[in-house]
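Model: You mentioned two targets. I'll fold them one after the other.
Researcher: Yes, keep them separate.
Model: Target one:
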Amino acid sequence: MVLLGGLSAAALLGTTPENVMLVVNQSSNVSRHIGEYYLHRRQIPLPNLCRIETAESEEVSRAVYEAEIERPVARCLQSNQLAERILYIVTTLGVPLKIKGAGAGMAIEAASVDSELTLLYAKLKGAAVHVAGPVPNPFYRQMRARFQHRQFPIYLVTRLAGYDFSDVAAMIDRSLQARNRGKFVFDLKAGDGDRGGNDWLQEAARSLPKDRVILEDTSHVLYNQRDVIGYASWGSNDRDRKQRMLGFEWLPGAIATEFVSTDGRTFARPPDGWNITTWEDRAHFFAGSPQSLTADYIHEGVTGCSGHVYEPYLAATPHPQYLFPAYFNGRNLAESYYLSIPSLSWQNIVVGDPLCKIGKPD
């Protein structure tokens, strides 16, 4: 049975350029160029462009985040009377990626810039937000609800990022060509210790038409698949995966997610010869980790992908059994991902054009 068959038209509203605020870092050439390109391609109204000025550094302190990112974005929303109209905030490559913080485990104060910005609407309304640890996402699993501030006092924040301008421009172009066709590929991980994530992947597969699904439930890793519109796996946490790149043929509009702790840690380009490895092989880490990279999926041809800047723990990663049915049935990219993410003010990022959607099946 396919979920959301009765999804109302009202639930799919609010997906126009007028609902998007674009955040550009004036200190970054690539951020400005991406902003100009997206503004033109998506016809974002000029008042919805928010220019900030901060360091190009991927990691910043919370004080810098609040003074140079959050407060300027808040001023853009308030000065242009956009706080209610804006549903989606889009950051760009060159806007800081993550906020360092004290603590450990689920009480850590570190978070992604984008996930922290989701709470800006509530803050504008006077809500107090705890810095340490995750905040429950009120939109999580609300599969039939229209996204609106009255019910969900948050912004949905995505990022236009890749290894360079060319990667991001190509991703934006693909978002405008998206159609509902192709295969959804789910690659499970061998081993009884990972039952939870595997169960989610199987549930995702059951929620979609059988003729649109490829489900791999053995130790075999899927490479070189064709006509892929959706993908979920354990990424480099699957010990049987040995290749950094999957070699997939991704269709325009394709989205991906994986259960990996640090895949969104950086958008710096690794050396061409770098490959995923193990936590024991510290000599071959890249950007402090051996794990797969969100930016590799964008570079290979994905139109949207999730990631994590620091350890999120499995329970807080995107849940594919909500992500893919929502996207298949007409939700846009931003809403589909945030329906599947349990927590905000946490480690998650969503890369892609929030307005991208594949529409109804061909």
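Model: Target two:
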Amino acid sequence: MRSLVCALAAAGVIFSGPAVAQATPSPGTVEAQIDKQWNELEPVIEQYNDVHNKLRANRARAKRIQQRLTPLEVQVDVALEQVRGMAADAYMDGSPGALHVMILTGSATGLADKLTFLDQYARHQRAEVADVAELRDRLAADKRDLEVLTESLAVQDAGLAKSRAAIQKKIDELQRLRIRAYGASGGDDGPLRTGPCPADYTNDKGGRAAQKACSLIGRPYIFGAAGPRGYDCSGLTMVAWGSVGVHLDHYTRDQWSQGRPVRRAELRPGDLVFYYPGSLHHMALYVGGGKVVHAPHTGDHVRMADIERGPIAGYRRPG
């Protein structure tokens, strides 16, 4: 609540004694303050997206390793039992076993041949067991290493999840300030669409990704979401490109590395625009005509905006 009081004071809402004198803050003043504070919150949100995605991926990978490991363990156990049984029959029974083989073959030569075969077969079985056991042990080691990493990520994920309540409280304070300012001034966010979307029509993957982003205009911003009810900035671009079969991770920095760099003059619909050099904590999808579609912040909606909405870090083209 203290931060809200500070925010209201900065926006021109003045408290004096028991009576409250309220100056009407301009939307521009409020938005500038919200943008400043939101830029401190959004990197935490993107960090949560990154850790949570890695945790889910590691858990899925551990499950796949276990699915491969279980039949290998069974295979090793069965093969070892076969070798033990052969060794007992061929070598541990002594003369009675050898005599039995000789009776069956009718000659000592046959006995020698059979014992040689049994020895070779046993060696072959042991070699197969060794190969399978080596693969099993290698997978088990991978699983142990992965479990250590996953446990570390789980601790980070839990810590960030706990901080979500604090983050959400701050977001709610900003939103209450925002509603109050706009309610007092009678204004709003402005039109969600500022023209045709996409502004430039193309039927390649980027163009279709831009069409998908445009179709989501009006959906609310939701922290950490990738649809269908709402989106955050990297969730929006992930879904837009996912609609044309191109996978992007739900994290701005990962999406930065998953596309190839393009220059401003080369921009085409569907290209990704990244903001805030260094932190890369916000991004948008280019739709042509100097416009982007993005999910700005809580309380807002997916909307069109000028590409110069913030300091640009660079451009990437997925696919």
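Researcher: Noted. Anything on target two?
Model: Confidence is low (pLDDT under 50) at residues 1-21, 91-99, 184-189.
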